[in-house]
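wait is this the right file?? whatever heres the structure
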């Protein structure tokens, strides 16, 4: 076409003017056409690369954020993403992981609320029927799901000293919390003031003078009591969980031992059966017959103190007062005497 134009130019000035006009129009058209294409191309490219600001706001600062499978940063996290659908995963130690999807067309904030991870925790104790509370709330049984970290635990049971402690949870675990039996106040009294009392049992050994009080664990105890002039006492008592228990101990006076001696020379010489003669003698202490079996003449028990001893045999009877010491052993020898006095 340009070649043809050049031929027309050789024909004269008019032809030359026509060629220049034609050439100018062609150039304007070409420039306009190229600009339109450029504008369309620029508009298309801008649509493909334009991004959207997205913020991942998490309740746990520093949580790891993964977008579309790529580790992207830590919360709070802001990035420019292409408009459309995306996936997000947020994780943090001690929390349950979060996985979600979202679609964006404009700048937006995605809230993520991580829930604390829980672990199975069991509380064992030596006290039967114990009540267990965790962080101030009583639980049913002895197991609970807890979050990682410190938790307060309270354990109580009848007859035991309640215990409060702190456990640190980092994994599923069983904790053993043993309770100590509770002591109760127990008083020991005696009918003899100041009697020595010794107590031994589950709580150890205790001693004192009556009356005295000891803090004892429930259980069975051996008790020994003694006092001068009284027979030692040994007994067993059972201490329960009830408070204010009192055990009264009764000591019996120590007895003296009296043996009756009847010399042969005061017996009837005409009776050869000595046993028969002895069986005819009766011994009374303060009016009480002490040898119901008449042949028993030895080891007669007499309480400490002053007593009236009376000996009777047949038509004869005589008595006298004597003092007996606790635990003493005495021989009472029977003697007959006669006195001759001038008569009137």
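ok assuming it is, sequence goes like this
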């Amino acid at each position: 076409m340009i070649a043809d134009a050049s031929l027309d130019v050789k024909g004269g000035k008019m032809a030359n003017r026509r060629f220049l006009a034609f050439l100018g129009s062609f150039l304007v058209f070409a420039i306009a056409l190229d600009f339109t294409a450029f504008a369309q191309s620029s508009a298309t490219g801008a649509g493909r690369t334009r991004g959207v600001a997205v913020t991942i706001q998490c309740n746990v600062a520093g949580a790891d954020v993964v977008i579309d499978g790529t580790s992207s940063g830590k919360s709070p996290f802001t990035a420019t993403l292409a408009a459309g659908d995306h996936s997000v995963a947020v994780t943090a130690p001690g929390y349950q992981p979060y996985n979600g999807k979202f679609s964006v067309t404009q700048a937006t904030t995605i809230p993520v609320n991580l829930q604390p991870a829980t672990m199975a925790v069991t509380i064992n104790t030596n006290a039967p029927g114990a009540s267990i509370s965790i962080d101030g709330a009583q639980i049913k049984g002895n197991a609970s799901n807890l979050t990682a970290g410190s938790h307060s635990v309270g354990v109580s049971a009848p007859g035991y000293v309640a215990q409060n402690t702190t456990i640190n949870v980092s994994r599923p675990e069983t904790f053993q919390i043993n309770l100590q039996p509770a002591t109760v106040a127990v008083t020991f009294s005696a009918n003899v003031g100041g009697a020595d009392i010794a107590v031994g049992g589950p709580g150890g050994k205790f001693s004192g003078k009556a009356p005295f009080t000891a803090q004892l664990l429930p259980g069975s105890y051996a008790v020994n009591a003694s006092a001068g002039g009284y027979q030692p006492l040994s007994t067993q008592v059972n201490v329960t969980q009830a408070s204010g228990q009192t055990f009264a101990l009764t000591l019996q006076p120590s007895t003296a031992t009296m043996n009756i001696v009847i010399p042969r020379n005061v017996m009837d010489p005409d009776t050869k059966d000595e046993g028969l003669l002895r069986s005819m003698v009766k011994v009374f202490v303060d009016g009480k017959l002490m040898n119901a079996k008449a042949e028993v003449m030895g080891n007669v028990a007499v309480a400490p103190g002053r007593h009236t001893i009376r000996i009777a045999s047949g038509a004869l009877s005589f008595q006298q007062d004597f003092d007996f010491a606790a635990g003493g052993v005495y021989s009472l020898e029977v003697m007959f005497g006669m006195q001759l006095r001038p008569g009137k």
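The chain has five domains: 2-40, 52-112, 118-181, 184-249, 256-333. so i think its the right one actually
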